[in-house]
Design brief:
With about 210 residues, the chain is an alpha/beta fold. It is built from nine helices and five strands; from the N terminus they run H-E-H-E-H-H-H-E-H-E-H-H-E-H. The chain has helices at about 1-10, 25-40, 45-50, 55-65, 70-80, 105-115, 130-140, 155-175, 190-205, and strands at about 15-20, 40-45, 90-95, 120-125, 180-185. It has a five-stranded parallel sheet, with helices on both faces.
């Protein structure tokens, strides 16, 4: 594993890896572990936006309903991170940064201008049924905290619909750019993470 990580780290430089998937696909779990091993900084649009919602009632309402943040709000809050001085010498692992069709263009430019070119996009593939099963399990275990967008099944349904209608076109853009790495995300956390590493390694060797 150490040799694989070293090769990926060398290939990545100060670039970015963006991780996408349905709710409960494990984006933050994979992203945090990947960032730790690569010596990267981790940026989750969900975490950043939820931290900002206390100062924005409209944003809080959207997020609580399972809606994506409006693009202009997203840009205002998220985009400046790519130019932060404290991040300039580090690679970035992004968790679903730029979820609404069209945002990916601005994200790619901002990342490139900040010295963090997006070099790969990992898609953690699970089914809608699997996402719902994981929601049920999380309600029992209570391991997601008191997130407003996790409270009701209808909100989860809306989040899934937002992903299908607004985020899938983003993913198709990345596919067209040759950046997409689909990963089967069923299994233990270690199994899924090892699959991500193996697929990333294949990707770095594709040329």
């Amino acid at each position: 594993m150490d040799e694989k990580i070293a090769k990926i780290k060398e290939w990545l430089g100060t670039g970015s890896i963006n991780v996408f998937g349905l709710p409960y696909s494990g984006k933050d779990t994979v992203g945090l572990r990947l960032a730790d091993l690569l010596g990267a900084k981790f940026l989750s649009s969900g975490l950043i936006l939820r931290a900002a919602e206390s100062n924005d009632k409209d944003l809080a309402k959207d997020l609580a309903a399972g809606n994506l943040a409006p693009t202009e709000t997203f840009k205002k809050i998220i985009m400046p991170y790519f130019g932060r001085e404290e991040l300039k010498d580090f690679p970035l692992v992004l968790s679903s940064v730029g979820r609404w069709e069209g945002e990916e263009i601005d994200i790619m430019k901002a990342a490139r201008d900040g010295g963090h070119e997006i070099k790969a996009v990992v898609l953690l593939n699970i089914s809608e049924d699997e996402a719902k099963q994981r929601w049920d399990a999380a309600k029992i275990s209570g391991d997601r905290g008191e997130r407003s967008d996790d409270r009701e099944k209808r909100i989860l349904d809306n989040r899934i619909n937002e992903f299908i209608t607004k985020t899938m076109p983003v993913i198709e853009t990345y596919r067209g750019e040759g950046l997409l790495i689909p990963v089967h995300a069923i299994g233990t956390r270690d199994e899924v993470f090892n699959s991500v590493i193996d697929e990333l390694l294949k990707f770095t060797n594709k040329d």
